[in-house]
Amino acid sequence: MEKQLRDLIRLLDLEEIEQNHYRGLSPKEGWQRVYGGQVIGQALVAASRTVEEDRHAHSLHGYFLRAGDTTIPILYVVDRIRDGKSFTTRRVVAVQHGKAIFNMSISFQVAEEGLSHQFDAPRVEPPEALEDEVTIRKRQAAQLPEEFQEHFTRERPIEVRPIDPVDLFDPKPHKPEQMCWMRTRDTLSDDPRLHQCVLAYLSDWTLLDTSALPHAVSFTQDNLQMASLDHAMWFHRPFRADDWLLYVQDSPSASGARGFNRGLIYDRAGALVASVAQEGLMRLHPKTPQTS
Fold it and tell me: Of the listed 48, 96, 178, 204, which one is catalytic?
């Protein structure tokens, strides 16, 4: 297993410090704040640890309350709200410096048969015909100061292959739509809960960027402040996060310094396995005048 993936699994393997209390750490990667997908994934791990093994998450709804501090652990406190015959409900609060930075409600369900339909997956190029995001970033990194290039181009545990890559340093107006293939860079165990937590982790990776596409701006700009405000996810069908998944994203609206984004996640065979919705902060500040 590649080192990056081992690090991700360790990141999601929380320490139980007391009943319903878990401790999570952040990677030492130089982030100014904790990556939102990390908190979502860790909160789902904490909740799953308190639920019977025959039940799996079918939906989660979370709010980002404060920026996370990467230099200290995160405490996850689980509230066992309800254990029903078919459904189990949990609430998780992530705490740092004595204050909540994130809260999330998760619903679990036993496996059941029922009516089934879905939107068809779009026809796109296969992942084998596309470039890895790391390769694309290495070309774009020439525009960065040398001290930032290594961080921008480092290989991550998740492999992403964009369908229509965007130049992050010279963006052009684009429809508020984007698609990419994604998977872990190595094989995971067969535990379906691990695959759900990994997918929750990576579901936040590119989603908010979708609402920036029509405005020809990107997170690389000093005057653009972007941050996830909330995140919702629904798991529809079994899947593997170590096999190619197609992430189809769009942004129906941006207003009030917020961008609203949606995502549909399909497996390689075209089955819709998960859906995502998120609103994020998109605050554009005046550019600082250049001084001679």
Answer: 204
* Number of domains forming the structure of the chain: 1
Residue 96 structural domain? 3-111+129-284
Among 48, 107, 228, 251, the one annotated catalytic: 228
User: pLDDT tens per residue, the chain (292 residues)?
Assistant: 577 788 899 999 999 999 999 999 998 765 568 999 999 999 999 999 999 999 999 999 999 999 999 999 999 999 999 999 999 999 999 999 999 999 999 999 999 999 999 999 999 999 999 999 888 888 877 776 665 666 677 778 889 999 999 888 888 999 999 999 999 989 999 999 999 999 999 999 899 999 999 999 988 788 899 999 999 999 999 999 999 999 999 999 999 999 999 999 999 999 999 999 999 999 998 876 655 4
204: annotated active-site residue? yes
37 lies in some domain: yes
Asked if the structure places residue 264 within a domain, the reply is yes
Catalytic residue list contains 278:
yes
Residue 278 lies in a domain: yes
The full DSSP string for the chain is --HHHHHHHHHHSPEEEETTEEEE----S--SS--HHHHHHHHHHHHHTTS-TTEEEEEEEEEE-SPPPTTS-EEEEEEEEEE-SSEEEEEEEEEETTEEEEEEEEEEEE--------PPPPP---GGGS--HHHHHHHHGGGS-HHHHHHHH---SEEEEESS---TTS-----SEEEEEEEESS---S-HHHHHHHHHHHTTSSTGGGGGGGGT--TTSTTEEEEEEEEEEEE-S---TTS-EEEEEEEEEEETTEEEEEEEEEETTS-EEEEEEEEEEEEEPPPPPP--
